[in-house]
Write a structure and sequence with these properties.
- A hairpin with a 6-residue loop joins strand 1 and strand 2.
- The protein is mainly alpha-helical and 391 residues long.
- Helices cover 73% and strands 1% of the residues.
- It has a two-stranded antiparallel ribbon with strand order 1-2.
- The chain has a domain of 139 residues: Alpha Horseshoe (Serine Threonine Protein Phosphatase 5, Tetratricopeptide repeat), CATH 1.25.40.10.
C-alpha cells in the first residue's frame, strides 16, 4: 500500500479533537466535583449546627448526583441509630431505597440497615418483613441472625428453631445448644398446661440436639413428677450429677422433697451431703441445713455449716453459721448475735447473686437466658462470692 501525503495532515487534527474532548471531560468532572463538595460541606454544616433534617436533605442531593455517595448515607444512618434517633435512621435508609437506580448490592445493604433500624426501634413486625426480603441476597446470613433474635424476643420458639437450623445449614456455626434451649422453652410451656406428652416429646428433641443439656434433664424429672412417678423423677434428677455436679444445687430442693414423698428423707439428705462435699454451694447448703435441722437436730446443723465454712470461707457461709448459732443461743448472747447477723446479712445480699459469665449481668435468681446479653446457659450455678473465692 502506497503512503499518501495527506495522511500527515490528519495527525494534528486527531490530536486537536482529543485535546478538545479531554477539556470537556475535565470541565464536567470539575463542575460535578464542585457541586458534590458544596453539597457535602453544606450537609456537614447542618450537622454541626444540630440540624440533622437539613443535613439529610443535603446528603440526599449528593446521592442524586453520584450513586457512590450512598456510603455517606449508610454512615449517617448508622450514626443516628447509635444515638437512638431511629426515626431519622429509618428516613435515611428509606430514602435510599426509594431510588429506582440504586445498584442491587447497595439496595440489599440499605434493606439490612433499615431492618436494623426497625429492630432498634422495637418495630419487630417491620423488621421481620425487611429481613425476610433479604434471604435470597448476599445478606442472607446476617438476616437469619436478626430473624433468630426477633423470634426469641417474641418467644416464637418453633420459628426460632427453624431459623437456627437454617443458620447451621448456611455454615454459620453450630446452634445445637441454643436449639436445645428452644425445645426446653416449648416443654416448659407444655408443662404449665399440664400437657405431659407434648412436654416429653419436646424434651426428647432437646436431648437429641444437646445430650449434655442440664435443663432438659431437670425438666424430664419434672414431667415424671407431674405424672406421679416420683421414683422415676428422683432417678432422672440424680443424673444431673453426671452432667454437671455444680448444677445439682438447682435440683436440691426437688430431690429432698421427692425423697420425703417416698418416705426416705434420710437417704435424700445423705445424697445431698455427698454432693455438697464434691461441689461447695451456698444454695445446696441451704437445703442441707434445713433438712439436717429437721432430721438430725440443731447441733448437727451447726456442725454441717461449720465444716462447710472451713472448706469454703465466705460471708454467705458465715451468715448461715450465725443463723445456726442463734437457734439455741442464751438470751444474753442472742441480741449480740442478732446484731452481727443483721450486719453480715445486709452485706451478703450484694454477694448472693448469680452473674452472667459473658456480660456480667447480675441477678437474684438463676436464668437460663441472660436478660442482659441474651446468651443462653451463661450463668454459672453459683453465687458471685463463691465464684470469687474459687478463682
Amino acid at each position: 500500500m502506497e503512503f499518501e501525503f495527506w495522511w500527515l495532515l490528519g495527525i494534528p487534527a486527531f490530536f486537536g479533537l482529543g485535546w478538545l474532548a479531554a477539556r470537556v471531560d475535565i470541565r464536567a468532572v470539575v463542575s460535578e466535583a464542585g457541586t458534590l463538595s458544596r453539597g457535602y460541606y453544606k450537609g456537614l454544616n447542618h450537622l454541626l449546627n444540630d440540624q440533622p433534617d437539613k443535613a439529610i436533605d443535603s446528603f440526599i442531593d449528593i446521592v442524586k448526583l453520584d450513586p457512590d455517595a450512598a456510603d455517606m448515607h449508610f454512615a449517617l444512618g448508622n450514626l443516628f441509630r447509635r444515638r437512638g434517633e431511629t426515626e431519622r435512621a429509618i428516613r435515611v435508609h428509606q430514602n435510599l431505597l426509594s431510588r429506582p437506580d440504586l445498584p442491587s448490592e447497595q439496595r440489599a445493604h440499605a434493606e439490612y440497615e433499615l431492618g436494623q433500624d426497625y429492630l432498634k426501634a422495637g418495630l419487630l413486625d417491620r423488621a421481620e418483613e425487611t429481613y425476610q426480603r433479604l434471604l435470597d441476597t448476599s445478606y442472607a446470613v446476617q438476616a437469619r441472625r436478626a430473624l433468630l433474635e426477633i423470634f426469641q424476643r417474641e418467644k416464637e420458639w418453633q420459628r426460632a428453631i427453624e431459623a437456627a437450623v437454617a443458620l447451621q445449614e448456611a455454615g454459620a456455626g453450630s446452634r445445637q445448644k441454643e436449639i436445645a434451649q428452644f425445645y426446653c422453652e416449648l416443654a416448659q410451656d407444655a408443662l404449665v398446661r399440664l400437657h405431659y406428652d407434648e412436654a416429653e416429646a419436646q424434651l426428647e428433641n432437646a436431648l437429641h440436639a444437646d445430650r449434655s443439656s442440664v435443663r432438659a434433664m431437670i425438666l424430664c424429672g419434672d414431667v415424671q413428677l407431674g405424672r406421679g412417678d416420683v421414683e422415676g423423677a428422683l432417678v432422672t434428677w440424680g443424673r444431673v450429677e453426671q452432667q454437671s455436679v455444680p448444677h445439682v444445687a438447682l435440683v436440691a430442693t426437688r430431690l429432698m422433697d421427692g425423697y420425703r414423698k417416698v418416705g426416705r428423707p434420710q437417704e435424700g439428705l445423705s445424697l445431698l451431703k455427698s454432693y455438697l462435699e464434691q461441689a461447695s454451694s451456698i444454695d445446696l447448703l441451704e437445703v442441707v441445713f434445713k433438712a439436717v435441722i429437721e432430721l438430725e437436730g440443731v447441733d448437727a446443723a451447726k456442725q454441717v455449716v461449720s465444716d462447710e465454712l472451713r472448706r469454703t470461707p465466705t460471708l454467705l457461709g458465715l451468715d448461715k453459721l450465725l443463723e445456726a448459732r442463734m437457734m439455741d443461743a442464751p438470751a444474753g448472747v442472742l441480741s449480740e448475735l442478732s446484731m452481727v447477723k443483721n450486719l453480715v446479712h445486709g452485706y451478703t445480699q450484694k454477694l448472693a447473686r448469680y452473674q452472667c459469665s459473658h456480660c456480667g449481668f447480675k441477678a437474684r435468681q438463676f436464668y437460663w437466658h441472660c436478660p442482659g446479653c441474651s446468651r443462653w446457659d451463661s450463668y454459672p450455678p453459683r453465687r458471685t462470692e463463691e465464684l470469687n473465692v474459687m478463682n
